Amino acid sequence: MRIVGLNASPNEDGLTATMLKAVLEDAAEAGAATELVHMKQRKLKACLQCDNGWGICSKEGNCILEDDMQAVREELWRADAIVISTPVYFGEVSEVAKNFLDRVRRCEVAGPSENKMAGKLGLAIAAAGGSGGGIVSCQFVLERYFQHLGIRVFDMIPVTRFTREYKIESAKLAGKALVGAQM
Ligand SMILES: Cc1cc2nc3c(=O)[nH]c(=O)nc-3n(C[C@H](O)[C@H](O)[C@H](O)COP(=O)(O)O)c2cc1C
After folding, report:
1. Residue 182 pLDDT > 90
2. Is the pLDDT of residue 22 over 80?
3. Atom 2 in ligand 1: which residue has the minimum CA distance?
4. Among positive and negative, which fits the CA dihedral 116, 112, 74, 11?
5. Which atom of ligand 1 is nearest to the CA of 10?
6. Model confidence pLDDT, tens digit, residues 142-178
7. How far is 117 from 79, CA to CA, in rounded Å?
8. Which atom of ligand 1 is least distant from the CA of 127?
9. Rounded-to-integer distance, Cα 165 and Cα 120, Å
10. pLDDT band at 61 (very low <50, low <70, confident <90, very high)
11. Ligand 1 — pocket residues by CB below 6 A?
12. Average of pLDDT values for 127-154?
């Protein structure tokens, strides 16, 4: 199994990344090929809402913006399972996660070609490092991206700074379980 993890936090060693690394490391131990993408290292612009909002992507299946979005999208195409780990910002996913997922959704779902994300397994992590408020609305957004993209929800893991220790253990177990998942 090939698993690609997206870290949507600007911190490479914060709570969001730590949870993601726990999933990937234990998945690798269980035999998966894993890849970690720190999204802040990639150039990922926001959707221009071109063509009166319909998007040239709906005709061509690709985005007209020149950045790293297509390369990351193709890394996900090659994956059997996708793990998205985002910090909770204002009760939502981080800006880089939103920019990327919005554009991928348009290209895959509104575009003329087959949706290459459909059928993959998805694990979403929402890391709320402040009050812990907004974690449910963040997960709601993540679940909707998965639904639109046809990604099968394997698990959604919320974590706060108060639950960090035992949720890291959950993340490790999730990584192992993902490798053996029959869904
Ligand atoms: C702009 C911004 C908005 C935030 N909004 C929330 C929030 O709604 N709820 C919450 O519990 N924490 C909030 N936080 C705290 C982040 O969730 C916390 O910094 C994050 O989990 C830390 O992840 P990291 O260690 O991976 O950077 C916010 C932080 C920032 C920078």
Report:
1. no
2. yes
3. 89
4. negative
5. 27
6. 999 999 999 999 999 999 999 999 999 999 999 999 9
7. 9
8. 21
9. 29
10. very high
11. 9, 11, 14-17, 87-91, 127-134
12. 97
Global pTM?
0.97
Residue identified by tokens 């993890």 is: 5
Q: Is the pLDDT of residue 183 over 80?
A: no
- With a CB cutoff of 8 Å and minimum separation 6, the contacts of 98 are 92
* Cα gap 114→125, rounded to integer Å: 27
First to last CA, the chain: 13
Structural domain for 158, as ranges: 2-163+170-179
Please give the Cα distance from 73 to 104 (Å, whole number).
Answer: 7
Residue nearest to ligand 1 atom 21, measured at CA: 129
How many domains does the structure of the chain reveal? Answer: 1
- Across 132-142, average pLDDT: 97
Backbone angles phi, psi at 37, to 5 degrees: -110, 115
Distance 52 CA to ligand 1 centre (A): 33
* Residue 3, strand partner residues: 34, 81
Contact in structure between 76 and 4 (CB atoms under 8 Å): yes
Residue 68 per-residue DSSP state: S
Q: Ligand 1 test: best mutation among 84, 89, 92, most atoms within 8 Å of CB?
A: 89
Which domain CATH number covers 101? 3.40.50.360
